[in-house]
Amino acid sequence: MMYKACLFDLDGVLVDTAIYHFQAWKNLGKQFGYELTEEQNEQLKGVSRVESLNKILDWANYTATQEEKSVWLIEKNEDYLRLISSMNPSEILPGVLSFLEQIKALGYKIALGSASKNAEIILDKTGLTPWFDLIIDGNKVSKSKPDPEVFLKGAEGLGIAPEECIVFEDAQAGVEAAKAGNMKAIGIGESETLFLADKIIPNFIGVKAAELLQF
């Protein structure tokens, strides 16, 4: 099989914005007396903002009105935007630029498939935008991972069949989305959480694209 496209999640794969999400959710939780833990924050990776808030409210055993939720979602996003406003190219994860250079040279199309509605801002701040042929973010999809919508839209936008795409993900929900879309999945991180992936690497440091993308 000849693969033609690489689709990347953003947070935790290309850049690490999890710390900013964690801080913004923690700040919000304090409004109803709840302290979000790092372990719980791990479960919010790849999950939409609405679903993340619902999870936190469940953990806190707090029943919120729809009006409260709407206000809090806006507050959380504004806090997050404030936190990421100082992001710069130094926050690209190690090995990412080398890997992007390699796959571009090998002729792969490159797309982003992220639940983040702020993906374009982050790509712009970190200088990653020029690498991408297509950006599919939370503003262009209605379903969260593990639904494959974000990756299927990426494949469609690139004009490439799903089975010719390879997805890079750091979250279990993202790996499940890739597999549901009939794509190969390469997990970035720990095998304990990414065991459904076709291959797993800890990060992109020293990775040889030509070898990794052989299936």
Polypeptide structure, described:
A 6-stranded parallel sheet has the order 3-2-1-4-5-6, with helices on both faces. With 215 residues, it is α/β, with parallel strands linked by helices. The mean pLDDT is 94. The protein has helices spanning 18-29, 38-42, 49-60, 66-84, 96-105, 119-126, 149-158, 172-180, 209-212, and strands at residues 5-8, 109-113, 134-136, 165-169, 184-188, 199-201. The chain has 9 helices and 6 strands. Helix 1 (18-29) packs across helix 4 (66-84).
Key structural traits:
single chain, 215 residues, alpha/beta, six-stranded parallel β-sheet, 9 helices, 6 strands, 41% helix, globular
Largest sheet: 6 strands, parallel
How much helix, percentage-wise, in residues? 40-55%
Give the CA-based shape: globular
Please give the count of helices: 9
Order of helices and strands: EHHHHHEHEHEHEEH
Q: Rg from C-alpha positions? A: 17 Å
User: Count of DSSP E strands?
Assistant: 6
Mean pLDDT: 94
The separation of the N and C termini measures 8 Å
Category from helices, strands and their pairing = alpha/beta
As residue ranges, the low-confidence spans are none
Give the strand content: 5-15%
Strand order of the largest sheet: 3-2-1-4-5-6
